[in-house]
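Researcher: I'm preparing a figure for a lab meeting and need a structural model of a single chain. I don't have an experimental structure, so a prediction will have to do for now. The sequence is pasted below. Please return the structure as C-alpha cells so I can convert it later.
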Amino acid sequence: QFKVESARQRLVDLNPYIQVDVYNEVFTSENAWRIAAGYDILVDGSDNFPTRYLMNDLAVMTGRPYVYGSIFRFEGQVSVFDARKGACYRCLFPEPPPPGMVPSCAEGGVFGVLPGTVGTLQATEVIKLILEIGEPLTNKLLLYDALDASMQIVHLRKNPRCRVCGEQPEIDHLIDYEEFCGVPARDTQAGLAGDGWDIEPREVQRRLKDNQNLQLVDVRDPVELQISSLPGAILLPLTQLPQRTNELDPSREIVLFCRTGVRSTRALRLLAGQGFTHLHSLKGGINAWAEQVDPSIKRY
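Model: Understood. Here is the structure written out cell by cell.
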C-alpha cells in the first residue's frame, strides 16, 4: 500500500467526517497548478528545497498563504508566508544552499518527536487562518530548539527586490526547481570561488585568535541579523555591495559570509572584479560556523 493511502486511511479512521484527497504522484511544476487548484491554503510537509521553492512560488502566483515548516536534528522552523501581506519564503531565503550542504532528515537525523511538534504548530496556523482568529505567523519566523525548549520569533520584511514577489518580479511562472536547487551556480570567472577562495570556519577562528588582520563581512540581509551574527563583522548586504565597496579596506584580508556560502561566493566574484585580491568566502556560511565552531549560534 502506498504511503499516501495509509495516511488517508489513518486520518479517516480518526475522523470519518472529513474528506481526504490523495495524489500518488511527485509534486512538480507540471502538476502543481492542477493539484493546488481546489485548495485555499498550501501546507508544506516536505524536507527538500526544490519543493519549498515550488510551494512558495505557487503560493505567490495564486495568492494563497503558504504554511511552512522545517526540521533539522533538534531544531524546527515555522512560518506563514503570504506575499499579499508581506514576505514570502524567497524574501528570507533568496538562494538555496549549495547541493549537499544541508542534509535531508534521512541523512542528518532528526529528534523523533520534532516532526510532531512542528506539524502541530503548522496545524495551529492553518486553523487560525481558516477561522480568522489570533495572529498568524505572517511576517514572522518561529525558531524552536527542542534541547532547551526555547522559542524565538524573528520578524520578517518583504524584500522589494524579491525575484517572485518584489516590485519588479523576474519569475512569473513555475520553473525547474530541481535544476534551480541542484545545479551549482556557474563559475563566470575561471579560478574564482574554488578551493583556494573558500576558507573553513575553524581556519577563520584560528586566524582571529592569532590576531590576524581579518575583516569579516556579512553579506546577508539585515533581517537575518536577528537570527545569528558573528562578533566584529560588518554588514554589507549583497544587494548594496556594489555601491558600498568604499567601506572595505583592500589591504586587509576579507572574509565574506552569508547563510550557507552562496551569496558570499557571488560577493567574492563581484569584489574580485573590482580589483580586491585578499578575499575568502566562509565555506558553508554562518550555519557551518554554528555547527563547527559555536553551537550557541542559531542555524536556519
